[in-house]
Sequence to fold (259 residues):
Amino acid sequence: MHPTDKTRNQDLSSGQGDHSTLYVSLELSRSTWLVTSLSPNSDKMSKHTIAAGDAPKLLALLARLRGRAEQIVGGSLNVAVIQEAGLDGFWVHRSLEANGIESHVVDPASIAVSRRRRRAKTDAIDGETLLRTLLAWKRGEPRVCEMVVPPTPEQEDRRRLSRERATLLRERVQHVNRIKGLLAGQGVTDYNPLHKDRRTQLEGLMTGDGRPLPTRLKAELLRELARIELLLQPGNNDGRDISSPISPRLVGERLNLTV
Fold:
């Protein structure tokens, strides 16, 4: 954990409103997390960096920051944390709440940022912007931002079904188009890769000039069909739940690249 320089900010102490709360913003990147905090009655933002993904260190840092601030104000403090919704999902938010810390997740697109700051975007500026956003939101200022309502782990897991289905459908379209493109180069335009007899029909295909399909092309088409069949297997058309597991043995047989 590495503390960075403190930054003076005008009118922050007078605009905090709640003087019993330590305000903290989190900037989460793949390599480091930037923690920006503001103590009650202070006009200085303190910044610290820790390794990304280290929740115990984050909790320990927040505990130290709260303890230090409590010694200064001579009383107990709450901690309110804000972070952007992003690739880290909601596990950090849940970890904070599980440890009794008030946590908020904000939609980054809803935060009003000046054009100048957009051109000079850095972790430090974003950390300060998040903290100012939290302060304004806690004061009840209108149109400051939009806070995200984090889903429960169960709700988040249920959403994966529709997301996976959308992904599978896109992949299926890609493989179908590739097969049709390969066959079009041989003068074949009436083959349907999604037909139930697609393998049988493939065996009888002839090129536009009357030749059987070339051996290597046919092998490539069979591999593409195997991929389509894997995408069809979870139940896109037969009514089974898309979450049905795909047999590892079936995967190995259908994607045998030695064909």
